[in-house]
Protein backbone atom coordinates (compact mmCIF):
# COMPACT_ATOMS: atom_id res chain seq x y z
CA UNK A 1 0.00 0.00 0.00
CA UNK A 2 1.28 3.46 -0.85
CA UNK A 3 0.02 5.99 1.70
CA UNK A 4 -0.21 9.79 1.55
CA UNK A 5 -0.63 12.33 4.33
CA UNK A 6 -2.02 15.83 4.54
CA UNK A 7 0.19 18.83 5.25
CA UNK A 8 -1.27 19.08 8.74
CA UNK A 9 -0.38 15.47 9.52
CA UNK A 10 3.13 15.79 8.08
CA UNK A 11 3.76 19.02 10.01
CA UNK A 12 2.66 17.41 13.28
CA UNK A 13 4.94 14.41 12.69
CA UNK A 14 7.83 16.73 11.80
CA UNK A 15 7.33 18.77 14.97
CA UNK A 16 7.33 15.67 17.08
CA UNK A 17 10.53 14.37 15.47
CA UNK A 18 12.30 17.75 15.44
CA UNK A 19 11.80 18.04 19.18
CA UNK A 20 13.97 14.94 19.61
CA UNK A 21 16.72 15.80 17.12
CA UNK A 22 19.44 18.43 16.94
CA UNK A 23 18.38 21.58 15.12
CA UNK A 24 18.56 21.30 11.35
CA UNK A 25 18.93 17.50 11.37
CA UNK A 26 15.74 16.88 9.40
CA UNK A 27 16.69 19.33 6.71
CA UNK A 28 20.08 17.63 6.39
CA UNK A 29 18.37 14.26 5.97
CA UNK A 30 16.13 15.73 3.30
CA UNK A 31 19.03 17.43 1.52
CA UNK A 32 21.15 14.27 1.58
CA UNK A 33 18.34 12.23 -0.01
CA UNK A 34 17.70 14.95 -2.55
CA UNK A 35 21.37 15.25 -3.51
CA UNK A 36 21.65 11.47 -3.88
CA UNK A 37 18.63 11.38 -6.20
CA UNK A 38 20.06 14.24 -8.29
CA UNK A 39 23.45 12.56 -8.47
CA UNK A 40 21.77 9.34 -9.62
CA UNK A 41 19.96 11.23 -12.32
CA UNK A 42 23.14 13.03 -13.48
CA UNK A 43 25.01 9.72 -13.58
CA UNK A 44 22.38 8.32 -15.91
CA UNK A 45 22.06 11.37 -18.17
CA UNK A 46 25.72 12.45 -18.42
CA UNK A 47 27.88 9.90 -16.65
CA UNK A 48 28.44 11.74 -13.37
CA UNK A 49 28.13 14.81 -11.16
CA UNK A 50 31.56 16.30 -11.84
CA UNK A 51 31.27 19.26 -14.21
CA UNK A 52 27.44 19.17 -14.34
CA UNK A 53 25.67 22.54 -14.48
CA UNK A 54 22.98 22.56 -11.80
CA UNK A 55 20.48 25.40 -11.33
CA UNK A 56 18.55 25.81 -8.08
CA UNK A 57 15.30 27.79 -8.02
CA UNK A 58 15.11 28.87 -4.40
CA UNK A 59 11.98 30.02 -2.59
CA UNK A 60 11.77 31.92 0.69
CA UNK A 61 11.11 28.97 2.99
CA UNK A 62 12.55 25.63 4.03
CA UNK A 63 11.89 24.16 0.60
CA UNK A 64 14.52 26.57 -0.68
CA UNK A 65 16.75 25.54 2.23
CA UNK A 66 16.58 21.90 1.13
CA UNK A 67 17.56 22.89 -2.41
CA UNK A 68 20.50 25.00 -1.19
CA UNK A 69 21.93 22.31 1.08
CA UNK A 70 21.50 19.67 -1.65
CA UNK A 71 23.18 22.09 -4.09
CA UNK A 72 26.10 22.44 -1.66
CA UNK A 73 26.50 18.67 -1.59
CA UNK A 74 26.52 18.51 -5.40
CA UNK A 75 28.99 21.42 -5.56
CA UNK A 76 31.34 19.53 -3.26
CA UNK A 77 31.25 16.68 -5.80
CA UNK A 78 32.33 18.99 -8.59
CA UNK A 79 29.05 20.33 -9.99
CA UNK A 80 28.81 24.00 -11.05
CA UNK A 81 25.84 25.10 -8.97
CA UNK A 82 23.95 28.36 -9.44
CA UNK A 83 21.13 29.32 -7.10
CA UNK A 84 18.47 31.81 -8.21
CA UNK A 85 16.49 33.11 -5.23
CA UNK A 86 12.89 34.16 -5.66
CA UNK A 87 13.44 36.89 -3.07
CA UNK A 88 17.13 37.61 -2.29
CA UNK A 89 16.12 39.23 1.02
CA UNK A 90 14.37 36.07 2.20
CA UNK A 91 16.60 33.14 1.38
CA UNK A 92 17.52 30.40 3.85
CA UNK A 93 20.67 31.90 5.44
CA UNK A 94 22.32 28.63 6.47
CA UNK A 95 21.62 27.10 3.07
CA UNK A 96 23.03 30.09 1.18
CA UNK A 97 26.18 30.08 3.30
CA UNK A 98 26.63 26.32 2.82
CA UNK A 99 26.29 26.67 -0.95
CA UNK A 100 28.82 29.52 -1.10
CA UNK A 101 31.25 27.63 1.13
CA UNK A 102 31.03 24.65 -1.25
CA UNK A 103 31.92 26.84 -4.25
CA UNK A 104 28.40 27.48 -5.58
CA UNK A 105 27.09 30.95 -6.25
CA UNK A 106 23.89 32.98 -6.27
CA UNK A 107 22.52 34.74 -9.34
CA UNK A 108 19.53 36.90 -10.27
CA UNK A 109 18.72 35.39 -13.67
CA UNK A 110 18.04 31.73 -14.49
CA UNK A 111 21.00 30.39 -16.55
CA UNK A 112 19.71 28.93 -19.80
CA UNK A 113 22.45 26.30 -20.11
CA UNK A 114 21.95 23.60 -17.52
CA UNK A 115 22.04 19.84 -17.03
CA UNK A 116 19.57 19.81 -14.16
CA UNK A 117 17.13 22.25 -12.53
CA UNK A 118 16.00 21.84 -8.92
CA UNK A 119 12.63 23.35 -8.11
CA UNK A 120 13.00 24.48 -4.51
CA UNK A 121 10.49 27.33 -4.75
CA UNK A 122 7.63 26.02 -2.64
CA UNK A 123 6.94 22.87 -0.71
CA UNK A 124 4.16 22.14 1.74
CA UNK A 125 4.10 25.82 2.73
CA UNK A 126 2.80 26.85 -0.71
CA UNK A 127 -0.68 28.38 -0.75
CA UNK A 128 -2.89 29.20 -3.74
CA UNK A 129 -1.51 29.88 -7.21
CA UNK A 130 2.14 30.87 -7.61
CA UNK A 131 2.70 34.56 -6.94
CA UNK A 132 4.28 36.56 -9.79
CA UNK A 133 7.91 36.33 -8.55
CA UNK A 134 7.67 32.52 -8.37
CA UNK A 135 5.78 32.23 -11.64
CA UNK A 136 8.44 34.36 -13.40
CA UNK A 137 11.19 31.91 -12.37
CA UNK A 138 9.15 28.90 -13.45
CA UNK A 139 8.65 30.49 -16.84
CA UNK A 140 12.43 30.80 -17.23
CA UNK A 141 13.16 27.09 -16.74
CA UNK A 142 15.09 26.23 -19.92
CA UNK A 143 13.07 23.89 -22.15
CA UNK A 144 14.22 20.29 -22.35
CA UNK A 145 16.34 20.39 -19.17
CA UNK A 146 15.35 17.73 -16.61
CA UNK A 147 13.61 19.17 -13.54
CA UNK A 148 13.73 17.64 -10.06
CA UNK A 149 11.01 19.00 -7.78
CA UNK A 150 11.92 19.35 -4.12
CA UNK A 151 9.17 17.76 -1.97
CA UNK A 152 6.50 18.63 -4.55
CA UNK A 153 6.27 20.59 -7.80
CA UNK A 154 5.77 24.26 -6.93
CA UNK A 155 2.24 25.39 -7.76
CA UNK A 156 0.66 22.02 -6.88
CA UNK A 157 -1.55 21.96 -3.79
CA UNK A 158 -0.02 19.30 -1.53
CA UNK A 159 -3.35 18.27 0.03
CA UNK A 160 -5.54 18.04 -3.05
CA UNK A 161 -3.47 18.00 -6.25
CA UNK A 162 -5.18 21.21 -7.37
CA UNK A 163 -3.20 23.48 -9.68
CA UNK A 164 -4.34 27.10 -9.76
CA UNK A 165 -2.40 28.78 -12.57
CA UNK A 166 1.22 28.16 -13.52
CA UNK A 167 3.10 25.27 -11.89
CA UNK A 168 6.31 23.33 -12.33
CA UNK A 169 6.22 20.15 -14.40
CA UNK A 170 8.91 17.87 -13.01
CA UNK A 171 10.59 14.76 -14.37
CA UNK A 172 11.22 13.54 -10.84
CA UNK A 173 9.85 14.63 -7.49
CA UNK A 174 11.92 13.83 -4.41
CA UNK A 175 9.49 13.95 -1.52
CA UNK A 176 10.38 13.84 2.15
CA UNK A 177 8.97 11.69 4.93
CA UNK A 178 5.68 10.81 3.24
CA UNK A 179 3.80 11.03 -0.04
CA UNK A 180 1.45 14.00 -0.18
CA UNK A 181 -2.02 13.48 -1.70
CA UNK A 182 -1.27 16.07 -4.40
CA UNK A 183 1.50 13.83 -5.74
CA UNK A 184 -0.96 11.01 -6.39
CA UNK A 185 -4.04 12.91 -7.61
CA UNK A 186 -4.41 14.79 -10.89
CA UNK A 187 -3.84 17.45 -12.02
CA UNK A 188 -0.96 17.51 -9.51
CA UNK A 189 0.10 13.90 -10.10
CA UNK A 190 0.83 14.51 -13.77
CA UNK A 191 3.12 17.41 -12.77
CA UNK A 192 5.20 15.25 -10.44
CA UNK A 193 6.86 12.77 -12.82
CA UNK A 194 8.41 9.78 -11.07
CA UNK A 195 8.02 10.22 -7.32
CA UNK A 196 10.91 9.20 -5.09
CA UNK A 197 10.30 9.01 -1.34
CA UNK A 198 13.14 9.88 1.05
CA UNK A 199 12.70 8.45 4.54
CA UNK A 200 13.49 11.10 7.14
CA UNK A 201 12.20 9.06 10.06
CA UNK A 202 8.70 10.47 10.51
CA UNK A 203 6.21 8.45 12.52
CA UNK A 204 2.83 8.80 10.90
CA UNK A 205 -0.74 7.95 11.95
CA UNK A 206 -3.39 6.65 9.53
CA UNK A 207 -3.21 8.17 6.04
CA UNK A 208 -5.65 10.55 4.33
CA UNK A 209 -5.11 8.94 0.91
CA UNK A 210 -3.84 5.52 -0.13
CA UNK A 211 -3.08 3.64 -3.33
CA UNK A 212 -3.38 -0.13 -3.58
CA UNK A 213 -0.52 -2.05 -5.12
CA UNK A 214 -0.38 -5.53 -6.69
CA UNK A 215 -0.14 -7.42 -3.41
CA UNK A 216 -3.05 -5.50 -1.84
CA UNK A 217 -5.24 -6.26 -4.84
CA UNK A 218 -4.21 -9.92 -4.95
CA UNK A 219 -5.18 -10.17 -1.28
CA UNK A 220 -8.69 -8.84 -1.97
CA UNK A 221 -9.56 -10.80 -5.12
CA UNK A 222 -12.36 -13.33 -4.57
CA UNK A 223 -10.88 -16.63 -5.76
CA UNK A 224 -12.73 -19.95 -5.87
CA UNK A 225 -11.76 -22.75 -3.50
CA UNK A 226 -12.32 -26.49 -3.60
CA UNK A 227 -15.75 -26.09 -2.00
CA UNK A 228 -16.93 -23.28 -4.30
CA UNK A 229 -19.92 -23.57 -6.59
CA UNK A 230 -21.30 -20.96 -8.94
CA UNK A 231 -23.89 -19.67 -6.47
CA UNK A 232 -21.46 -19.46 -3.56
CA UNK A 233 -19.09 -17.49 -5.78
CA UNK A 234 -21.85 -14.93 -6.16
CA UNK A 235 -24.25 -13.97 -8.93
CA UNK A 236 -24.13 -10.48 -10.39
CA UNK A 237 -27.19 -9.02 -12.11
CA UNK A 238 -26.83 -6.45 -14.89
CA UNK A 239 -29.65 -4.00 -15.57
CA UNK A 240 -28.30 -2.09 -18.54
CA UNK A 241 -28.85 -1.28 -22.19
CA UNK A 242 -31.85 -0.06 -24.13
CA UNK A 243 -33.08 -0.19 -27.70
CA UNK A 244 -30.89 2.81 -28.31
CA UNK A 245 -27.79 1.52 -26.45
CA UNK A 246 -27.69 -2.28 -26.56
CA UNK A 247 -23.86 -2.21 -26.64
CA UNK A 248 -23.63 -0.94 -23.08
CA UNK A 249 -25.36 -4.12 -21.90
CA UNK A 250 -22.93 -6.31 -23.84
CA UNK A 251 -19.91 -4.46 -22.47
CA UNK A 252 -21.14 -4.48 -18.87
CA UNK A 253 -21.71 -8.24 -19.15
CA UNK A 254 -18.26 -8.59 -20.71
CA UNK A 255 -16.73 -6.94 -17.63
CA UNK A 256 -18.94 -8.87 -15.20
CA UNK A 257 -17.95 -12.24 -16.68
CA UNK A 258 -14.31 -11.46 -15.84
CA UNK A 259 -14.85 -10.22 -12.29
CA UNK A 260 -14.89 -13.53 -10.46
CA UNK A 261 -18.65 -13.94 -9.89
CA UNK A 262 -19.97 -17.48 -10.42
CA UNK A 263 -22.70 -16.33 -12.81
CA UNK A 264 -23.88 -13.22 -14.62
CA UNK A 265 -27.58 -12.52 -15.00
CA UNK A 266 -28.92 -9.97 -17.47
CA UNK A 267 -32.24 -8.16 -17.15
CA UNK A 268 -33.34 -5.74 -19.88
CA UNK A 269 -34.19 -5.19 -23.52
CA UNK A 270 -30.79 -6.16 -24.98
CA UNK A 271 -30.92 -9.85 -24.10
CA UNK A 272 -30.55 -10.96 -27.70
CA UNK A 273 -27.38 -8.95 -28.25
CA UNK A 274 -25.97 -10.13 -24.94
CA UNK A 275 -26.65 -13.82 -25.63
CA UNK A 276 -25.28 -13.60 -29.16
CA UNK A 277 -21.98 -12.50 -27.72
CA UNK A 278 -21.98 -14.29 -24.35
CA UNK A 279 -24.03 -17.48 -24.22
CA UNK A 280 -22.80 -17.92 -20.62
CA UNK A 281 -25.27 -15.23 -19.47
CA UNK A 282 -28.44 -16.10 -17.51
CA UNK A 283 -31.39 -14.09 -18.79
CA UNK A 284 -34.26 -12.59 -16.79
CA UNK A 285 -34.96 -11.70 -13.17
CA UNK A 286 -33.71 -13.89 -10.32
CA UNK A 287 -31.74 -13.81 -7.11
CA UNK A 288 -28.35 -12.08 -7.16
CA UNK A 289 -25.82 -10.89 -4.59
CA UNK A 290 -25.15 -7.63 -6.41
CA UNK A 291 -26.85 -5.54 -9.08
CA UNK A 292 -25.23 -3.21 -11.59
CA UNK A 293 -27.74 -0.70 -12.83
CA UNK A 294 -27.37 2.14 -15.29
CA UNK A 295 -25.06 1.67 -18.29
CA UNK A 296 -26.93 2.61 -21.48
CA UNK A 297 -30.26 2.59 -19.65
CA UNK A 298 -31.53 5.75 -21.38
CA UNK A 299 -34.24 7.92 -19.87
CA UNK A 300 -37.38 7.10 -17.96
CA UNK A 301 -36.13 4.07 -16.04
CA UNK A 302 -35.66 5.60 -12.60
CA UNK A 303 -38.31 3.22 -11.26
CA UNK A 304 -36.06 0.21 -11.93
CA UNK A 305 -33.19 1.90 -10.11
CA UNK A 306 -35.38 2.73 -7.12
CA UNK A 307 -36.69 -0.84 -6.96
CA UNK A 308 -33.18 -2.30 -6.80
CA UNK A 309 -32.14 0.23 -4.18
CA UNK A 310 -35.14 -0.80 -2.07
CA UNK A 311 -33.91 -4.40 -2.07
CA UNK A 312 -31.27 -6.01 0.11
CA UNK A 313 -28.64 -6.97 -2.48
CA UNK A 314 -25.53 -4.86 -3.04
CA UNK A 315 -26.06 -2.27 -5.79
CA UNK A 316 -23.67 -0.43 -8.10
CA UNK A 317 -25.25 2.59 -9.78
CA UNK A 318 -23.59 3.96 -12.92
CA UNK A 319 -24.29 6.29 -15.85
CA UNK A 320 -28.02 6.88 -16.55
CA UNK A 321 -28.88 5.18 -13.25
CA UNK A 322 -27.31 8.16 -11.46
CA UNK A 323 -29.93 10.62 -12.73
CA UNK A 324 -32.19 11.93 -10.03
CA UNK A 325 -30.83 9.62 -7.34
CA UNK A 326 -32.71 9.82 -4.06
CA UNK A 327 -30.14 10.49 -1.31
CA UNK A 328 -32.56 9.47 1.44
CA UNK A 329 -33.22 6.09 -0.20
CA UNK A 330 -29.49 5.50 -0.49
CA UNK A 331 -28.86 6.45 3.12
CA UNK A 332 -31.57 4.05 4.29
CA UNK A 333 -29.84 1.04 2.71
CA UNK A 334 -27.86 -1.46 4.72
CA UNK A 335 -26.33 -3.53 1.88
CA UNK A 336 -23.23 -2.16 0.12
CA UNK A 337 -23.91 0.64 -2.37
CA UNK A 338 -21.40 2.02 -4.82
CA UNK A 339 -21.89 4.99 -7.16
CA UNK A 340 -19.52 5.25 -10.15
CA UNK A 341 -19.92 8.70 -11.75
CA UNK A 342 -17.55 10.38 -14.17
CA UNK A 343 -16.87 14.09 -13.59
CA UNK A 344 -19.99 15.21 -15.47
CA UNK A 345 -22.27 12.88 -13.52
CA UNK A 346 -20.57 13.82 -10.27
CA UNK A 347 -21.15 17.49 -11.06
CA UNK A 348 -24.87 16.84 -11.60
CA UNK A 349 -25.09 14.88 -8.33
CA UNK A 350 -23.44 17.74 -6.43
CA UNK A 351 -25.06 20.62 -8.32
CA UNK A 352 -21.69 22.15 -9.31
CA UNK A 353 -19.82 22.54 -12.60
CA UNK A 354 -17.89 19.74 -14.24
CA UNK A 355 -14.77 21.96 -14.24
CA UNK A 356 -14.88 22.35 -10.48
CA UNK A 357 -15.10 18.57 -10.03
CA UNK A 358 -12.13 18.04 -12.33
CA UNK A 359 -10.07 20.72 -10.58
CA UNK A 360 -10.90 19.46 -7.07
CA UNK A 361 -11.42 15.72 -7.42
CA UNK A 362 -10.63 14.87 -3.81
CA UNK A 363 -13.14 17.32 -2.37
CA UNK A 364 -15.76 16.17 -4.86
CA UNK A 365 -15.49 12.49 -4.02
CA UNK A 366 -15.55 13.21 -0.29
CA UNK A 367 -18.66 15.37 -0.65
CA UNK A 368 -20.43 12.72 -2.71
CA UNK A 369 -19.82 9.96 -0.19
CA UNK A 370 -21.05 12.21 2.61
CA UNK A 371 -24.12 13.44 0.81
CA UNK A 372 -25.28 10.06 -0.52
CA UNK A 373 -24.10 7.82 2.32
CA UNK A 374 -22.58 5.38 -0.18
CA UNK A 375 -19.17 4.41 -1.46
CA UNK A 376 -18.25 6.49 -4.50
CA UNK A 377 -15.86 5.80 -7.36
CA UNK A 378 -15.10 9.02 -9.26
CA UNK A 379 -13.80 8.11 -12.71
CA UNK A 380 -11.27 10.02 -14.79
CA UNK A 381 -7.53 10.50 -14.82
CA UNK A 382 -6.61 9.25 -11.34
CA UNK A 383 -9.84 7.55 -10.37
CA UNK A 384 -10.71 8.04 -6.69
CA UNK A 385 -12.73 5.80 -4.37
CA UNK A 386 -14.17 7.12 -1.11
CA UNK A 387 -16.38 5.67 1.55
CA UNK A 388 -17.31 7.10 4.92
CA UNK A 389 -14.41 8.64 6.78
CA UNK A 390 -11.83 6.10 5.54
CA UNK A 391 -8.75 7.10 3.55
CA UNK A 392 -9.62 7.97 -0.05
CA UNK A 393 -8.12 5.47 -2.47
CA UNK A 394 -6.44 6.73 -5.58
CA UNK A 395 -6.06 4.32 -8.45
CA UNK A 396 -2.46 4.05 -9.62
CA UNK A 397 -3.15 2.10 -12.85
CA UNK A 398 -4.91 3.16 -16.05
CA UNK A 399 -4.08 5.10 -19.18
CA UNK A 400 -5.66 8.05 -20.97
CA UNK A 401 -6.55 5.59 -23.77
CA UNK A 402 -9.38 4.49 -21.46
CA UNK A 403 -11.18 7.70 -22.36
CA UNK A 404 -13.16 5.82 -24.99
CA UNK A 405 -16.85 5.01 -25.26
CA UNK A 406 -17.84 1.85 -23.44
CA UNK A 407 -14.84 1.45 -21.15
CA UNK A 408 -16.94 2.69 -18.21
CA UNK A 409 -19.52 -0.02 -18.94
CA UNK A 410 -16.82 -2.69 -18.68
CA UNK A 411 -15.69 -1.16 -15.38
CA UNK A 412 -19.17 -1.21 -13.87
CA UNK A 413 -19.76 -4.85 -14.84
CA UNK A 414 -16.38 -5.88 -13.49
CA UNK A 415 -16.83 -3.97 -10.25
CA UNK A 416 -20.36 -5.31 -9.74
CA UNK A 417 -18.99 -8.81 -10.13
CA UNK A 418 -16.46 -8.11 -7.35
CA UNK A 419 -19.31 -6.82 -5.16
CA UNK A 420 -21.19 -10.06 -5.81
CA UNK A 421 -18.04 -11.90 -4.73
CA UNK A 422 -18.39 -10.30 -1.30
CA UNK A 423 -16.13 -7.26 -1.46
CA UNK A 424 -17.27 -4.02 0.21
CA UNK A 425 -18.22 -1.08 -2.01
CA UNK A 426 -14.86 0.62 -1.45
CA UNK A 427 -12.83 -2.56 -2.00
CA UNK A 428 -14.79 -3.54 -5.11
CA UNK A 429 -14.36 -0.03 -6.51
CA UNK A 430 -10.63 0.13 -5.82
CA UNK A 431 -9.93 -3.40 -7.08
CA UNK A 432 -12.18 -2.92 -10.12
CA UNK A 433 -10.47 0.32 -11.13
CA UNK A 434 -7.06 -1.25 -10.56
CA UNK A 435 -7.69 -4.31 -12.76
CA UNK A 436 -9.46 -2.21 -15.40
CA UNK A 437 -6.48 0.15 -15.60
CA UNK A 438 -3.98 -2.71 -15.65
CA UNK A 439 -5.91 -4.45 -18.44
CA UNK A 440 -5.97 -1.21 -20.45
CA UNK A 441 -2.21 -0.80 -20.07
CA UNK A 442 -1.73 -4.35 -21.34
CA UNK A 443 -3.77 -3.55 -24.45
CA UNK A 444 -1.97 -0.26 -25.13
CA UNK A 445 -3.69 2.10 -27.48
CA UNK A 446 -5.81 3.03 -29.27
CA UNK A 447 -8.02 0.49 -27.53
CA UNK A 448 -11.55 -0.83 -27.75
CA UNK A 449 -13.58 -1.25 -24.58
CA UNK A 450 -14.09 -4.93 -25.39
CA UNK A 451 -10.31 -5.44 -25.55
CA UNK A 452 -10.08 -4.13 -22.00
CA UNK A 453 -12.63 -6.74 -20.92
CA UNK A 454 -10.69 -9.46 -22.75
CA UNK A 455 -7.43 -8.47 -21.04
CA UNK A 456 -8.93 -8.65 -17.53
CA UNK A 457 -7.97 -12.30 -16.80
CA UNK A 458 -4.32 -11.53 -17.58
CA UNK A 459 -4.47 -8.39 -15.42
CA UNK A 460 -5.95 -10.49 -12.61
CA UNK A 461 -3.00 -12.92 -12.86
CA UNK A 462 -0.49 -10.04 -13.08
CA UNK A 463 -1.39 -8.90 -9.58
CA UNK A 464 0.08 -12.14 -8.24
CA UNK A 465 3.52 -11.29 -9.65
CA UNK A 466 5.11 -8.25 -8.06
N1 LIG B 1 9.63 21.09 8.59
C1 LIG B 1 10.55 20.15 8.49
O1 LIG B 1 10.93 19.52 9.43
C2 LIG B 1 11.12 19.82 7.19
C3 LIG B 1 10.76 20.59 6.10
N2 LIG B 1 11.34 20.39 4.94
C4 LIG B 1 11.09 21.27 3.81
O2 LIG B 1 10.39 22.42 4.19
C5 LIG B 1 9.31 22.64 3.31
C6 LIG B 1 8.28 23.48 3.98
O3 LIG B 1 8.91 24.69 4.29
P1 LIG B 1 8.15 26.01 4.70
O4 LIG B 1 7.17 25.71 5.74
O5 LIG B 1 9.18 27.00 4.99
O6 LIG B 1 7.32 26.37 3.42
P2 LIG B 1 7.76 26.55 1.89
O7 LIG B 1 9.22 26.59 1.72
O8 LIG B 1 7.02 25.51 1.14
O9 LIG B 1 7.11 27.96 1.49
C7 LIG B 1 6.91 28.97 2.42
C8 LIG B 1 7.17 30.34 1.85
O10 LIG B 1 6.62 30.50 0.57
C9 LIG B 1 5.76 31.64 0.51
N3 LIG B 1 4.62 31.27 -0.31
C10 LIG B 1 3.55 30.52 0.04
N4 LIG B 1 2.70 30.34 -0.98
C11 LIG B 1 3.25 31.00 -2.03
C12 LIG B 1 2.83 31.19 -3.36
N5 LIG B 1 1.68 30.66 -3.82
N6 LIG B 1 3.62 31.90 -4.20
C13 LIG B 1 4.76 32.43 -3.76
N7 LIG B 1 5.20 32.30 -2.48
C14 LIG B 1 4.46 31.59 -1.62
C15 LIG B 1 5.37 31.92 1.93
O11 LIG B 1 5.12 33.28 2.09
C16 LIG B 1 6.58 31.44 2.71
O12 LIG B 1 7.53 32.45 2.79
C17 LIG B 1 8.90 21.26 2.93
O13 LIG B 1 8.14 21.21 1.75
C18 LIG B 1 10.24 20.60 2.76
O14 LIG B 1 10.79 20.90 1.49
C19 LIG B 1 12.43 19.42 4.79
O15 LIG B 1 13.59 20.13 5.06
C20 LIG B 1 12.27 18.27 5.72
C21 LIG B 1 12.09 18.71 7.11
N1 LIG C 1 -7.81 11.01 -18.96
C1 LIG C 1 -8.03 9.79 -18.50
N2 LIG C 1 -7.00 9.07 -18.01
C2 LIG C 1 -7.21 7.82 -17.55
N3 LIG C 1 -8.42 7.21 -17.52
C3 LIG C 1 -9.46 7.89 -17.98
C4 LIG C 1 -9.34 9.20 -18.48
N4 LIG C 1 -10.56 9.62 -18.85
C5 LIG C 1 -11.41 8.61 -18.59
N5 LIG C 1 -10.76 7.56 -18.06
C6 LIG C 1 -11.34 6.27 -17.65
O1 LIG C 1 -12.10 5.75 -18.73
C7 LIG C 1 -13.31 5.17 -18.27
C8 LIG C 1 -14.46 5.94 -18.93
O2 LIG C 1 -15.67 5.72 -18.32
P1 LIG C 1 -16.96 6.59 -18.65
O3 LIG C 1 -16.63 8.04 -18.54
O4 LIG C 1 -18.06 6.06 -17.85
O5 LIG C 1 -17.20 6.31 -20.19
P2 LIG C 1 -18.29 5.44 -20.94
O6 LIG C 1 -19.58 5.66 -20.24
O7 LIG C 1 -18.26 6.01 -22.32
O8 LIG C 1 -17.85 4.05 -20.89
C9 LIG C 1 -13.27 5.25 -16.76
O9 LIG C 1 -12.70 4.09 -16.23
C10 LIG C 1 -12.34 6.43 -16.52
O10 LIG C 1 -11.70 6.38 -15.27
K1 LIG D 1 9.23 22.51 -4.82
TrEMBL record:
Binding residue positions for K(+): 63, 119, 154
Signal peptide range in chain numbering: none
The reaction(s) this protein catalyses: (6S)-NADPHX + ADP = AMP + phosphate + NADPH + H(+); (6S)-NADHX + ADP = AMP + phosphate + NADH + H(+); (6R)-NADPHX = (6S)-NADPHX; (6R)-NADHX = (6S)-NADHX
Classification via PROSITE patterns: YJEF_C_3, YJEF_N
All copies of domain YjeF N-terminal, residue ranges: 10-208
Binding locations of (6S)-NADPHX: 62-66, 123-129, 151, 248, 296, 342, 409
Domain YjeF C-terminal positions: 213-463
Domain of life: Bacteria
EC numbers, comma separated: 4.2.1.136, 5.1.99.6
Keyword Nucleus: no
Cofactor detail note: Binds 1 potassium ion per subunit.
Gene3D superfamilies (UniProt xref): 3.40.1190.20, YjeF N-terminal domain
UniProt KW keywords: ATP-binding, Isomerase, Lyase, Metal-binding, Multifunctional enzyme, NAD, NADP, Nucleotide-binding, Potassium
Stored HAMAP family: NADHX_dehydratase (MF_01965), NADHX_epimerase (MF_01966)
Family: In the C-terminal section; belongs to the NnrD/CARKD family.
UniProt name for this protein: Bifunctional NAD(P)H-hydrate repair enzyme
Organism of origin: Streptomyces nojiriensis
Gene: nnrD
Amino acid sequence: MRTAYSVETVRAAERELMARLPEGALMQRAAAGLAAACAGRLRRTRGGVYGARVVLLVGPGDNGGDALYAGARLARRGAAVTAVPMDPERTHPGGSAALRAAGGHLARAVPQRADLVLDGLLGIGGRGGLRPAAAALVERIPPGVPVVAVDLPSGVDADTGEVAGPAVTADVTVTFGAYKPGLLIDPGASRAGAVHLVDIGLELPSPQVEALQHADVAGLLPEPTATSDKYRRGVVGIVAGSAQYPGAAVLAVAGALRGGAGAVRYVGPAAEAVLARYPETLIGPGRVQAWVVGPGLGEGRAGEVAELLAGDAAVLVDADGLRGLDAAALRARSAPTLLTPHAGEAAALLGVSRESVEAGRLDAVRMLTQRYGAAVLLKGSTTLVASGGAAVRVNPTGTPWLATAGSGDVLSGLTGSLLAGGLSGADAGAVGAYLHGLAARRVGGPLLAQQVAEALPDAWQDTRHP
